Amino acid sequence: MHNNVPEAVLLAHDKAYGSDSILLRSGEHSWTSYNHGRIEVLRSLRVKAQAGAVLLGRWLLLRGSSGRMEHARCLSQTPSSQTIRCFYDPTIFWQGARDWRLVNCDIRSAGSVAALASQESQVVLVRCSLGGALQRR
To answer: Which end of the chain has fewer CB atoms within 10 angstroms, the N or the C?
Structure first.
């Protein structure tokens, strides 16, 4: 089980790790100070979150990536100084990604778009909710 989401994703991308799966513990996981608050996914990845896990940051799922996300509550917040960029900085951004499946996830954004798929991305959402959120103070 992981507490550090960026580190877990990097491990899952490393073939020596032997698995493309990560399990996230209950509680808040934030990576807002890592890579401008974005995790970039380049390969296959499976994310399973325990009940009560809240993922605070953005996901950039790039061409060549595929995978599955289960039971995740994803939330991002756009600083008021960046409102001009808000459309291009969603909580989850599939950019040419293939074969992504989200199951029982809640994707929210405060001040931006919750989810955006572009460049022939293929995404299936099953029992998921998308929408806005109140700004965190």
So the answer is: C
